[in-house]
Amino acid sequence: MDLIKQLLKQTDVLSVLKSQAGLSQDEAERFVPAATDATVQELQGGGLDLGALLGGGGVGDLLSKLDIGQIAGAAGLSAEKAGPALQQFLPVLMQFLNGQGGGIESLLGGDAGSLLSRAKGALGKLLGGS
Q1: Which of 82, 104, 102 is nearest to 30 (CA)?
Q2: Domain residue extents for the chain
Q3: In contact, 86 and 65? CB cutoff 8 Å
Q4: Fewer CB under 10 Å: which end of the chain, C or N?
């Protein structure tokens, strides 16, 4: 995935995971793709406050929605190692995505305003509006 290559090239995420989450180089290299894929899927699935994420907050909400066991399994780690690694990883990933041209908006296939407008429109239709 090009996003993962860019993340690894443009951030110190592996160093952060090794120094602050206690992962080995090999564990960190396996963790990043698994955690990135799971995070992107969750972001694309909706249900998160994009405004908070775009503003640098909301990481706790995102963390609570991710399946740490699934990420751990995909990375070949224990959940005990993956949990702290995910807490260190998400702020780095969000900062990286926000720094990219288009950031989270392009990842989700639009800009934040249009995504929010579409969400409000869909909600209105569900509630009986036009």
Answers
A1: 82
A2: 2-126
A3: no
A4: C
The residue type at 28: A
> Which two structure tokens, joined as six digits, stand for 125?
């239709």
- Cα separation, 17 vs 28, whole angstroms: 6
Q: What's the pLDDT at 98?
A: 76
Give which of 83, 73, 71, 94 is closest to 11, Cα–Cα: 94
Average pLDDT per consecutive 10 residues, the chain (130 residues; last block may be shorter): 83 94 96 93 78 70 91 96 94 81 56 46 46
Residue 117 sits at φ, ψ, to 5 deg, of: -65, -45
DSSP letter assigned to residue 5: H
What was the pLDDT predicted at 109? 58
